[in-house]
Specification:
Length: 124
């Protein structure tokens, strides 16, 4: 019984971390879209903004999960980053059915999300 409660606590912490991460992502992307509306941003700046949103959101999510769980923080931050990427990938696949996603971009996004989540867990 005690082990089940601990496992549920870990899952709830990861889910809360994911929620915080996606809220931060939404806020950053909202800011980026506002800047695109007001300023003619080059595509490189838009891509950099998207990558910054991945880094910031998974870093905060990993930090939150690490603070909540207090043991093996970097592993839980890494798990949070990987789950963030998987959800992001599933949403991208659902929205973009016509053409396959480039493998290089997928690898970059995966490494960015997982490493940022792990770093967030480590510094918590």
């Amino acid at each position: 019984m005690d082990k089940t409660i601990r496992n549920n606590t870990k899952m709830v912490a990861v889910l809360k971390g994911l929620l915080f991460s996606y809220i931060i992502t939404a806020l950053i992307l909202l800011l980026l879209s506002f800047l695109m509306l007001k300023i003619d941003l080059p595509s490189a700046a838009i891509s950099a903004g998207i990558i910054i949103s991945y880094i910031a959101s998974t870093l905060v999510g990993g930090f939150f999960v690490g603070k909540k769980l207090e043991q093996k923080k970097f592993i839980w931050g890494l798990i949070m980053g990987v789950v963030y990427f998987i959800i992001l990938l599933l949403v991208s696949l659902a929205m973009n059915r016509a053409e396959p996603l480039p493998l290089g971009n997928l690898l970059t996004a995966f490494l960015t999300c997982s490493i940022s989540g792990m770093v967030g867990g480590m510094i918590s």
